[in-house]
Amino acid sequence: MSEPKPKKKFSRRKFIVRSSVGVGVLLGGIYFSRPAWRRSIASMANSAEPFYMGGTDKPLLWFEIRADNQVLLHSPKVEMGQGTFTGLAQIAADELEVDFSQIKVVHAATATGNIDGLSTGGSTSISSLWQPLRELAATMREMLKHEAARIMGAEASALSVKEGVVSGNGRALTYGEIVKEVKEWEIPETPPLKDIKSYKFVGKPLPRVDLHDKVIGAPIFGMDATMPDMLYGAVVRPAYIGARYVSADTSQAEKMPGVVQVVKEADFVGVVARSIVEAENAKNAIQVTWDVEKEWQSEEIEEMIKVGKGEPFVIQKEGGAKRILDNEEDVATAEFKSPIGAHAQLEPNGAVAFVEEGKATVMISTQVVKITRKEVAARLGLDEEKVNIIPTYLGGGFGRRLHTPNAIQAAVLSKAVGKPVKCFFNRQEEFQNDTFRPPTHHVLRAKLGSDGLIRAIEHQVSSGDVMFGSPLFPGIAEPILGADAGAWRGGMIQYGKIPNYRAVSWRVKLPFATSWWRSLGLLANTFAIESFMDELAIKAGKDPVQFRLDQIQDDEAGHRLKEVIKAAAAKAGWKDGAHNGRAMGFAASTDANTPCAQVAEVSIEDGQIRVHKVTCAIDPGLAVNPDQVRAQCEGAIIMGLSASMYEKMTVRDGQLTPTLYGPYRMALMKDVPREIDVVILENAEAPGAVGEPPLGPIGAAVANAVFRLTGQRLREMPLELA
Amino acid sequence: MKISFNINGTPQEVDADGNTPLLWVIRDVLDLKGTKFGCGKAACGACTVHVNGEAVRSCSYAAKFAEGKNITTIEGLATGDGLHPVQQAWMEEIVPQCGYCQPGFMMATAALLEKVPNPTDQDIDDNIVNICRCATYYRMRKAIHRAAEIKNANT
Fold it and tell me: How much is the mean pLDDT over chain A?
């Protein structure tokens, strides 16, 4: 059995093979050698060759053609704001030969089978579907053409297709008319794809397909879902780290108005009532006994997370960096820290579930549709085929919805009362039970050569779990993979001309849940490495932009990185040093094979850091929708600023705090740069990652600017002046 | 208790506990789902509606206080078949990403424009204090200025 290595181009036959193995391959890792596994996971985390796991190669499950000639595209990826539905519609329209307006994208439910086995996340939705979706759409087009030929009694080769109408022989049939006449479809070999240059929709800044719904307030989110005769549930959730449910006194709650039933399970207690308010009130009347072994404090977490305390894994090694840095004089060293971060997505987690005799239906905002189904099925003791997960639009994802215990809770409550139940977290529970971005600690060392360039450099990052904290990577993966590929994302040295470099990832098991948070380790790792690069440039007496350019290797990745660095510097009018109370800071990162460089223009106002302008150059490869690439950059920059400058969770007496917006300070309108200038380069043939890479440089870019204004080197996020 | 008010121009009478937040009456009794729950503590603005023209965070506004008042939600922001200038501007600037917080921002913006027809950037900073996790603020600011233009051109 060979390794399921992603191919740049695969024929239909190969596609079937890939599809049929699905997630089983991922979990069946024992068949593969450890190095093969590491390569697979590393390529998924950090390369241009994204996985597409599962789904189906049957065009009829992807495309539903309606009598009125509208085409429904059943997306295996969920829409959480990243614009995937729009990009997929553009890709499909071009090969299907329909107008963009004829396509409506909907979430595929598990009952239709067309679901990605992995997840929606990792900035892979468009890039992983680029090839298969074009092949499927082209195949569907040929199937329609073939049937039209049969109906018309013509040769398929004599027919032409335009905007969903097949013409020839003096006749014309819409796709909708053809579909009505078809009893059995014939699936041909995958036809050749069109020349990318001939595409009418791919590459255009078309408006989002969900724009109108989102502007009129249409009920499209998980929290808006309803079912007939629906009741409302509430579940008591722990407020302390490591709290285990022991027992509950529900006598008060049972007497509360509107209560239909109190539900006691071995691992949680909940209540079902006629309304959300009644359910919440009754929940608050339940007295739960928790077992809390220890009341944790932030100081203890900070001590645990220090480099040297966890388990080390060397993730990158070239030359003899350690030997040089251990033995030579005049070695520059620096430490950096980042805090615990909350997802704080606006739509809380929750689900609407209906469990009937032998089957279950769940409507939910989830990034892991198949895992949600598996977990619900396991809890209810049902076959997975008996559980239909209907994904809704997500009111923000950011990695938070890789974890959906809420689906289980709603299903259990529904089973207890025999009616549909809607059950959501409240905001306090969201903050207390988040799967946080782990705190990090970084130690860097470097030695400059006599030419003023880096001779040896080392980055050590210590982090709580990211990938290993998610349901995507079962326990079996940990000993095989070693290092947590999420924690070290962005943690490698990207300057390949440096003769000696080394990166080490220290794994620390924290007492609270940590997992994926948009861009994973990228934000903190780039903050540390790119702040240190700035310090080294200054120590070498060099311009920080040129200092970077001089140390990037001459291969394709190096070329693309150099191009974004040059583009950002040129567009921003890069000037080193402070001028008229303002200064620029520079930083660059490469994430999932997408290089990104940013220049932040900063001043100090009333003792506070004020970011006036951010210039961003990014090379995501082919931009399927340049406006959405721009939107993702703008959002990532501001979210990254928010996390770098304001956000921080702390641990006090066993509790994670704060538990509300406001006290959990996030960027508001007033904090946002008045100018965000995005330059898109497209130095790769296929679409690459967009949603996360532009989060990388922003923290370091701001900190580097602050140093030029104040002489203060900020080593800890959130960035605060002394 | 029985509570009577106008919502989006239509008289309504609901039977609810007077202390129930107006948000849940709007969402679950009247089934208008455009008004969102974000925090329940008036800290994020996702639930913003208009009560007699004022922007109000409906998660922290007891339903009994709505008695006799005019309530507008995102579903009733536009009059007639078209879109309100704020919604038009949001379309033109392609503001939403996940979209969950956007009705609250649009309602807050519409209320601001009634009081300040040409808001400065400072006015926007001072008055638009909702939270958007996708961080679409950059386009929102453009859209707010654009909405003012559209609205002023219409009147």
Answer: 91
- Bridge-based pairing of strands B54-57 and B48-51 is antiparallel
CB contacts of A674 in chain B (<8 Å) are 121, 141
Question: Which residue ranges in chain B fall short of pLDDT 50?
Answer: none
What DSSP character marks residue A719? P
Which pLDDT tens digit goes with each residue over A47-56? 444 455 555 6
The pair of three-digit structure tokens given for residue A232, joined into one six-digit string = 């409302």
Asked if A12-213 and A222-292+349-424 have one fold, the answer is yes
Q: Which residue of A has its CA nearest to B38?
A: A346
So what's the pLDDT on residue A299?
Answer: 98
Q: What secondary structure does DSSP assign to A365-424, as a single string?
A: --S-HHHHHHHHHHHHT--GGGEEEEE-B-S--TTGGG--HHHHHHHHHHHHHTS-EEEE
pLDDT at site A55: 54
The encoded tokens of residue A705 equal: 């600017």
Can you list the domains of chain B with their CATH numbers? 2-76 (3.10.20.30), 85-154 (1.10.150.120)
B131: nearest CB among A343, A666, A676: A666
| Domain positions in chain A | 12-213, 222-292+349-424, 299-341+435-710
A12-213 fold: Aldehyde Oxidoreductase; domain 4 (3.30.365)
- Claim: this prediction has a pTM higher than 0.90: yes
Neighbour count for residue A562 (Cβ, 10 Å): 19
**Chain A residues in contact with B43 (beta carbon < 8 A):** 427, 660-662
Task: Please state, in angstroms and as integers, the Cα–Cα distance from residue A434 to each residue in A302, A371, A402, A427, B84, following that order.
Answer: 19, 18, 11, 10, 37
Neighbours of A347 (CB within 10 A): 31
What was the pLDDT predicted at A52?
A: 55
Amino acid at B60: S
Cβ–Cβ contact B135 with A under 8 A: yes
Tell me the fold of A299-341+435-710. Aldehyde Oxidoreductase; domain 4 (3.30.365)
- Which whole number is the average pLDDT over A208-227? 98
A182 φ, ψ to 5°? Answer: -90, 130
Q: Do B132 and A670 touch (CB under 8 A)?
A: no
Tell me which CATH code domain A222-292+349-424 carries: 3.30.365.10
Closest CA to A600 of A646, A552, A655, A544: A544
pLDDT given at position A51: 53
What average pLDDT does the segment A310-321 reach?
94
